[in-house]
């Protein structure tokens, strides 16, 4: 094999190389477009200016990012706990499920971002409201996916377990829950991206810190480079959360992953 | 097999008291030393549907002796799987009485082994740990039964796949693992619901012989649901031919062929006569088979 064939072969099995090349090309195009058309910095900053803002503004960004991360995680973990819990309660009885599931679907139709101002009336400005908006946005996909996962367990598996004298708790732990895990993880991944959105919306309506606050302040100063940097920080937080979930999923349900390979596609936003 | 007795209909004489089981025993021919393993007495199953009640089983009675291999054979919709599920206790029959080993079936039976058409293995467990699920739920000694599970898997040719996950195996191998799981606790009754129905013909032949081999080594009562005439004759002491809508026992045919039976046996005139006899029953019922 000559060198170019070797490189081509390497790239075929390492798709991320192509992604990196595309990103580099896009950044180059971005820079060239600004130079060529003489775009004003407050409309679109140069990539280098954004990078400078990311690095030199780190002292301001990192505490803000930490604050935002707390709100994201707070809302997300609350949604996981209550979402899985509610799903289990609803599935414990046909009547409960039939009575409350339509309500749950109906509640999902309420644009939750619109509730944010109302929440400030009840919870005040700051962390509780941020957590609450993140929670409200990420709650539904977790409930629904958990229910789908648990209802999706093959009835034959339950019959087999019953014939072994297994009790309801044993069946749940050894058969139903593991069967539902892939679906629960799918719900959590969708929810993780929504929790980021929720936390930022919570910060937009008047928080004193967090990346949402940084964004709004920079916006009023026409400091576009800082806004870009803040968005970059936010994206990284969302990505870290998402990939952390991927990693946990990879190790907790390897039997599922082994069939489809590591899949890093975000479920939604 | 004279030790077995089939009642076409219920005569009402055994209702209620457990003592009636013994009455029935004594009513059997003298050489009947085996105790009845399963008694199905006047069992009906009705399913409510949108268009009214659907009669899936209509007063079916059948007695199976201990160690006997009985096939329920019939076209789809004849209630054979319904009957097997009722015997397993996983579903509750509408009327009539089912007893296993002298005890009435009123809840899911736990002293049996079940194999379905699909293996229903847990995807996240290795083959060995899937078989061991039986021991775990029954709280049986782990060391002893791990050894047993290995032996069983070895015997069905899965000795080299103990640590494989189900999706790494072929359909036939998965079904073999499911059979091992159903047999780990050495149940006296094995219920099999079209266990080889989803497999290709060659795999099916192999597993038929394997099942016969297992059954000959450790005799247990088997209730085997199938729609394969050949398979039913090859494996059974008796073939119970069922008719559809409502599910009834149309004919019970005793298969008097020496064991171990081989695939070559299928080409013999004796085998052909049994097959012909069964097809005649189907034809008289207006069922294509």
UniProtKB/TrEMBL annotation, chain A:
**Annotated SUPFAM superfamilies:** MetI-like (SSF161098)
Pfam families per UniProt: BPD_transp_1 (PF00528)
- What is the membrane topology noted in the UniProt record heading this document? Multi-pass membrane protein
Transmembrane spans: 16-37, 72-91, 103-125, 131-150, 184-205, 225-248
Q: Which residues form the ABC transmembrane type-1 domain?
A: 65-249
What does the UniProt keyword field contain? Cell membrane, Membrane, Transmembrane, Transmembrane helix, Transport
Which cell locations does it reside in? Cell membrane
Where does this protein chiefly localize? membrane
The answer, when asked if Cell membrane is one of the entry's keywords, is yes
Q: Does the keyword 4Fe-4S apply?
A: no
Q: Where is the signal peptide?
A: none
Say which family it is in.
Belongs to the binding-protein-dependent transport system permease family.
What is the protein's given name?
Answer: ABC transporter permease
**In which organism is this protein found?**
Novosphingobium album (ex Liu et al. 2023)
């Amino acid at each position: 094999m000559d060198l170019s064939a070797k490189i081509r072969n390497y790239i075929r099995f390492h798709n991320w190389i192509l992604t990196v090349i595309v990103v580099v090309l896009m950044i180059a195009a971005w820079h060239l477009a600004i130079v060529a058309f003489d775009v004003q910095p407050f409309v679109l900053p140069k990539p280098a200016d954004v990078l400078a803002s990311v690095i030199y503004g780190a002292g301001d960004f990192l505490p803000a990012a930490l604050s935002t991360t707390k709100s994201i995680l707070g809302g997300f973990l609350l949604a996981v706990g209550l979402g899985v819990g509610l799903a289990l309660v609803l599935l414990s009885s046909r009547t409960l499920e039939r009575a409350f599931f339509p309500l749950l679907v109906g509640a999902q139709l309420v644009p939750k971002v619109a509730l944010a101002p109302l929440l400030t009336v009840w919870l005040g400005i700051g962390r509780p409201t941020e957590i609450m908006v993140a929670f409200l946005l990420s709650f539904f996909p977790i409930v629904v996916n958990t229910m789908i996962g648990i209802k999706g367990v093959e009835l034959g598996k339950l019959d087999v377990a019953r014939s072994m004298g297994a009790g309801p708790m044993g069946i749940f732990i050894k058969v139903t829950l593991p069967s539902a895990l892939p679906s629960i993880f799918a719900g959590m991944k969708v929810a993780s991206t929504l929790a980021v959105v929720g936390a930022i919306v919570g910060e937009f309506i008047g928080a004193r810190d967090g990346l949402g606050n940084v964004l709004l302040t920079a916006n009023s100063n026409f400091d576009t480079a800082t806004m870009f940097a803040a968005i970059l920080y936010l994206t990284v937080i969302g990505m870290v959360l998402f990939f952390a979930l991927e990693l946990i999923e990879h190790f907790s349900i390897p039997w599922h992953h082994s069939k489809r390979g590591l899949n890093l596609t975000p479920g939604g936003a | 097999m004279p030790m077995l007795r089939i009642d076409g209909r219920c005569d009402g004489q055994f209702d209620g008291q457990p003592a009636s089981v013994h009455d029935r025993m004594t009513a059997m021919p003298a050489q009947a030393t085996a105790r009845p393993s399963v008694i199905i007495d006047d069992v009906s199953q009705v399913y409510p549907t949108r268009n009214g009640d659907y009669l899936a089983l209509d007063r079916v009675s059948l007695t199976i002796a201990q160690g006997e291999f009985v096939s329920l054979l019939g076209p789809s919709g004849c209630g054979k799987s319904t009957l097997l599920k009722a015997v397993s206790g996983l579903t509750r029959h509408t009327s009539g009485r089912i007893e296993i080993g002298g005890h009435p079936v009123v809840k899911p039976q736990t002293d049996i082994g079940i194999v379905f058409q699909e293996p229903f293995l847990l995807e996240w467990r290795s083959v060995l740990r899937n078989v061991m699920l039986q021991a775990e739920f029954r709280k049986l000694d782990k060391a002893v039964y791990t050894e047993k599970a290995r032996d069983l898997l070895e015997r069905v040719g899965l000795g080299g796949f103990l640590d494989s996950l189900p999706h790494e195996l072929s359909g036939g191998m998965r079904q073999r693992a499911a059979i091992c799981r159903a047999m780990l606790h050495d149940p006296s009754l094995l219920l099999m619901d079209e266990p080889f129905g989803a497999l290709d013909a060659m795999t099916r032949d192999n597993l038929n012989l394997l099942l016969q081999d297992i059954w000959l080594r450790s005799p247990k009562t088997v209730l085997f649901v199938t729609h394969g005439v050949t398979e039913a004759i090859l494996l059974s002491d008796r073939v119970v031919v069922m008719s559809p809508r409502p599910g009834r026992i149309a004919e019970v045919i005793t298969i008097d062929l020496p064991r171990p039976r081989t695939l070559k046996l299928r080409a013999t005139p004796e085998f052909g006569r049994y097959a012909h006899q069964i097809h005649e029953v189907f034809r008289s019922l207006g069922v294509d088979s």
